[in-house]
Specification:
It is globular, with a radius of gyration of 18 Å. The chain is mainly β. β14 and β15 form a beta hairpin. The chain contains one helix and 15 strands.
Length: 185
């Protein structure tokens, strides 16, 4: 085997230990923006990151920043993996299969794994105490509904006014948030 190939094989041995987790508030991953192609990183293709750890959802909020509307999911501890993309109707609850009404012309499915709003360790405690459906002061984002918290998979549906609006996902380990930013129409 050539020296070049041997060096390439040894890189993970030296790099991976440096990627450890000190357990601090920013443990897991640094601030990253996962986007699709398009203006300023916005697009309509599904985006995902499965490098997360078990996340406990604490809070969900929707805000309007003018040219961008944002749904921010705040976690206790580490950030979970995620998958965000447009989904077809009907929207159903995880576990029960019950149909969920989501306002808007299109729907972004938001899936966190492993994640929950309930901490099963130490006797169990309810971590997420917010509503299953948010009251909104946004126009492009028409609805935000929890559609499941089942077997370490936490799902939400984000209703979008009209057709599929461009979006991006911003994960910020220091703030312990994952935000879905939607370009305002």
């Amino acid at each position: 085997m050539s020296r070049w190939w041997m060096a390439l094989l040894l890189v993970p041995v030296f790099v991976l230990p440096a990627c450890g987790n000190d357990g601090g508030p920013a443990a897991g991953r640094a601030t990253t923006t996962t986007t699709t192609t398009g203006a300023e990183g916005f697009g309509t293709a599904t985006v995902s990151d499965d490098s997360g750890e078990r996340g406990l959802l604490v809070k969900v909020r929707a805000t309007d920043a003018g040219d961008v509307e944002r749904v921010t999911f705040e976690f206790e501890g580490a950030l979970p993996g995620y998958r965000v993309g447009y989904v077809e109707r009907p929207i159903v609850e995880d576990g029960s299969g019950k149909e969920v009404t989501v306002d808007g012309g299109s729907v972004l499915g938001v899936r966190f794994e492993p994640a929950s709003g309930f901490d099963l360790s130490g006797g169990g405690r309810q971590v997420f105490k917010g509503p299953d459906r948010l009251d909104l002061a946004t126009t492009t984002i028409t609805d935000v509904v929890r559609t499941g918290d089942f077997e370490a998979v936490l799902t939400w549906a984000v209703g979008i006014d009209g057709a599929k609006a461009p979006f991006r996902v911003v994960a910020d380990a220091a703030a312990r948030t994952i935000s879905v930013e939607v370009a305002s129409s």
